[in-house]
Amino acid sequence: MKLMKTSAIVLAVFTVILPIVFFTWWAFKDQAVFGSEKFDQTRWIALSNTVQKDCRRGDMAYDLKSHILIRGAKKEAVMALLGRPSLEDANALEYDLGKCMHVYHALRIYFDQDSRLTHSQISSH
């Protein structure tokens, strides 16, 4: 009987701790995976033309998203800074980061109807 109570307590604690660990990792994963290098415009643009499939620009993506891309910036200014996007639609630009942690990632930058930056995110494909 005591073994069943102990097992139930261990299972309950594990059930509580596992989601906390997972969501903590999820909240900080961009910084952990992509946060190791400062943005370098020359290197960013040079790496856009490589055929390597590794995480060639991923290391700069977090710094770029967190410290360089400023809300309200004009779309033209963002394109002047980052070069030609991999994909462009009416409200967003997408820059390929390569294959990071076994998944292809991109930096998506969103704009409002006045072509002003609203937010950016690192997405996986």
Portion in strands: 15-25%
**Strands ordered across the widest β-sheet:** 1-2-3-4
Number of helices: 4
Distance between the termini: 50 Å
Rounded average pLDDT: 82
How would you sum up this structure, described in words?
The chain is 47% helix and 23% strand. With 125 residues, the chain is of the alpha+beta class. The protein has a four-stranded antiparallel sheet, covered by helices on one side. A hairpin with a 5-residue loop joins strand 3 and strand 4 (117-124). The mean pLDDT is 82.
Task: Summarize the structure in short.
This protein is 47% helix and 23% strand.
List keywords for this structure.
four-stranded antiparallel β-sheet, alpha+beta, elongated, 4 strands, 4 helices, about 45% helix, about 120 residues
What is the element layout, followed by pairings?
Layout: H1 2-34, H2 41-47, H3 58-68, H4 75-82, E1 87-89, E2 92-100, E3 103-111, E4 117-124
Antiparallel strand pairs: 1-2, 2-3, 3-4
Helix pairs in contact: 1-3
